[in-house]
Amino acid sequence: MRRQIRGLTQASANAQDGISMVQIAEGALNEVHEMLHRMNELCVKAANDTMTYEDRSYIQDEIGALSDELDRVGETTTFNTIKLFDGLPQTKATAVAGSFTVNGASSGSVTQATDEEDAYLTMNPLQNGDVVGIPDTDTGTTVYYKVATDADISAYQTEWAEYWERKAEYDADPTAEGATEPTRPVERDGSSSDTAQLTKTSDVLRMISRNIAQNNANANADLCESASSSYSLGNDGKFNIHFYGPLPVNLQVGAEKDQYISFKIHSTNSATLGVYDINVKDSDGSGAAEGIEKVKDAISINSKRRAELGAVQNRLEHTIKNLDNIVENTTYAESRIRDTDMAKQMVEYARNNILAQVGQSVIAQANQTNQGVLSLIGR
């Protein structure tokens, strides 16, 4: 019984530690909620046609900063060094390559995660003129991008500006002496490798990184909630792959084996909430309109997770009360078995003491009678 009492006392402390963990997680999700509301506010503002492209670019800067903070909260919120929103062991997931191509061929080799390092994909660094094909995750249509310098992009834009200028002159008087219709430049709409969009290296790498992340999330959908891929500009041939999944928590709330309360703390970041790709920087507000819907869904997801954690906390509070009640009554029962019944023992002690005193008195009285007889004989 003493084993049970001490075990239950520790189980109560375990449940209290569980409440502390849940409170930290719920507090972080409260801040996530506030950031999502601010993102919604910004999207609504950007959707208004009184905003210019430049105004929307400023709004996008703040949305991007909030998205980065969502990721930071998900990565750094801890309890006793345990990451609460990034608890999936990386070795459980299987990393895969992206579905992108470089110059028409699949590119990249994957190294699986270890206990010390995340999985990663390595590929040859992109060179100026490389054509990268990236399938759209929604439509499946491949969009082609040609790696170009800022000067290349500027020259292409100038070529089109000059074309439209000459075209306007020609259309104004096509019969003028020496008038010839200008040749239309290649329309780089990304529909084929020959018409690939001229794009800076950093932007192409960002899209490759997103493609790798999406492919890995889809390949491990039964295990993880999302995946991310990151790269360093100083080492643009290596893409780190990280998987996000729920943290399983088992609280030992009993003195015996397998007496657990189990729950999960879901991964939280801009990807799992679906707001990582909000882009309001356009000329017609369409990106902001899409952003409003994405933030709405994210708020719903976050609210559901907060409700789940609140339910766990309420359950644990009742668990603690029940454990404390069991400990109190088991201690009382153990005390009755093991400890002395003081009232009974005091009565027994008094009885024995009286009997001893009575016996002594009888003996003393008998001795006095003997002494009296001897005294008479001596006379």
Summary tags:
alpha+beta; 2 domains; four-stranded antiparallel β-sheet; five-stranded mixed β-sheet; 15% strand; f41 fragment of flagellin, N-terminal domain; 379 residues; 6 helices
Task: Write a structural description.
- The chain is 53% helix and 15% strand.
- The protein has 2 domains: 1-87 and 247-339, f41 fragment of flagellin, N-terminal domain (Up-down Bundle), CATH 1.20.1330; 89-245, no CATH class.
- The model has no long low-confidence stretch (mean pLDDT 88).
- The chain is α+β, with helices and mostly antiparallel strands.
- Strand 12 and strand 13 (260-265) form a beta hairpin.
Q: Strand order within the widest sheet?
A: 4-3-7-8-9
Global mean pLDDT: 88
- Termini, distance in Å? 74 Å
What is the count of distinct domains?
A: 2
**How is the main sheet built?**
5 strands, mixed
Beta-strand share of residues: 15-25%
CATH topology of the largest domain: f41 fragment of flagellin, N-terminal domain
Radius of gyration from CA coordinates: 40 Å
